[in-house]
Amino acid sequence: MMNVFLRYQRIGAKYLSLAIIDLRDVTAILEELGYRVTDRLPPSGFRRSIAGSGPIAQKGGVTVDVDTVRHILGISSPDPEQLISEFEAVEEALSSRLRGYTRPRFYEAMVELEVSVKGADFYSVFEGMSDLTPVNAVSETLRVEASLMGVRIGLKGARPEGDEWMDVEIMPSTLKKDDVLYISLLYRSPDKARVFDTVRKGSLLASKLVKSLLRT
Q: At what angle do helices 192-200 and 202-214 cross, to 10 degrees?
């Protein structure tokens, strides 16, 4: 029996505009959308904008985070469709009124999941995949019986400084029992639709990865 648990889910965006973003403007727009501002802002000053980073507003299970200096917007929610809907609503509201959100460089999906499978031993699964040259090099050099602890999968030809990037980490949970697999997914692209699709497929990917491992 397989159970998939969502730990964290977020859609973010990085914008190219050099226009200054005042956190007071952002929170005022979010309040119009029904969000409750969770960050206490300093008082206004003459010709002075307020910068900020981190979570700033909530509405139900949805959290908005920003980095006004780096021009970053993020939305997190446990429900994929709600996450996508709220991100589109917030981005549209901000970009229609603030210059700092008008030129997206890339969008980003971040998903963390755990999958439990009754009777599975994911440490043993990776041990069975450990006949690899780097693992053998560790064993021979340190005189230990080294074992694969997980895998990371990226995007062919991509580099971390690029606008297109993927990092999928798959490993036995270090916090829970041997029958729990931890999966994290980071996908970045200028194509917003592809990022949304990645969020929608998070649970499907997790179940397919588990099935592929248990077949090995």
A: 60
